[in-house]
Design a protein that fits this description.
This protein is of the alpha/beta class and about 270 residues long. The chain has one domain: TIM Barrel. It is about 45% helix and about 15% strand. The chain has 10 helices and 8 strands. Strand 5, helix 6 and strand 6 form a beta-alpha-beta unit. It starts with a strand and ends with a helix.
């Protein structure tokens, strides 16, 4: 029996149209796919519908753990905050329509008021309840402040809301300098999804960007430890392959998805 469920973050095969991404995820052997709102909007602009996406997900027997992403909510106030919430509500409506229980909410780029961010996260969670969706807070290794599990957990603890969750990612742990061992401070129900990838030895960690991520097992991260720590706290849900590589975009998308799943399972299951 597998220790985890395996998901394809659709960024990994970004140029592919969204309905084809869903088909490929199923054909490659994944049981879930994360969808980006930019792709959803492109589908709608081309004359498609949210119902098309939901039907494809259902027809191919997949789940959608999250949609990606919400921005501008953490450190805004007043009119600017209200404008950001209007766009957030539009995306929450899409998230609910495609059947995802979570939507990923990103942190600010710069250092900011964590107390304000926590209050705004509570507001975001309450707005999410109106749509039956739980916004999950993501740390990003290349931002100035919320760049580790510890930093994200601090916001969750300040928010003190039963729906609060975070998104894990080994690349962002390595990039931000936070240890994998911080996973032990989480309970399984605080984790919406774990993105999955690896980091190269070069360039240096503080110079890495999204396009530098590599396939699991092709880098220097101790992903066995990462997965063992998840298992130890009782997390059994999604590992989601998230890459942003131009060289992969130029290859056959189904081949990329299949190789990615094989590499994920080799690391996570010891295959």
């Amino acid at each position: 029996m597998s220790r985890f469920q395996y998901c394809l973050n659709s960024s990994t095969i970004k140029p592919t149209p969204i309905i084809e991404k869903i088909r490929i995820a199923a054909a490659a052997g994944y049981t879930g796919i994360e969808l980006w709102h930019d792709d959803i909007d492109l589908h709608l602009q081309a004359g498609g519908s949210l119902a098309d996406i939901r039907k494809a997900v259902t027809d191919y027997g997949l789940q959608v753990p999250t949609t990606i992403y919400l921005k501008g909510w953490f450190d805004t106030t007043g009119t600017e905050h209200a404008q950001e919430l209007d766009e957030i509500k539009r995306r929450l409506e899409q998230t609910a329509a495609v059947g995802a229980p979570h939507v990923i909410a990103g942190p600010p780029q710069k250092k900011s008021d964590r107390s304000l961010g926590a209050r705004n996260y509570v507001e975001l969670l309450e707005v999410g309840r109106q749509f039956g969706v739980r916004p999950a807070f993501e740390y990003l290794g290349f931002v100035d402040d919320i760049n580790s599990i510890e930093a994200a957990l601090d916001v969750l603890q300040r928010a003190n809301h039963p729906d609060a969750t975070i998104v894990l990612d080994p690349f962002h742990c390595y990039r931000g300098g936070g240890p994998f061992e911080s996973i032990a401070k989480l309970s399984p129900n605080q984790i919406a999804v774990s993105h999955f990838n690896d980091s190269p030895a070069q360039p240096a960690a503080n110079l890495l960007g999204d396009p530098d991520r590599v396939m699991p097992g092709d880098g220097i991260c101790n992903l066995k430890l990462y997965c063992d720590l998840l298992a130890q706290i009782g997390y059994k849900r999604w590992l989601s392959l998230e890459l942003f590589r131009q060289d992969l975009y130029e290859r056959d998308a189904l081949e990329v998805a299949k190789i990615g799943l094989e590499k994920m399972q080799a690391v996570a299951e010891g295959n």
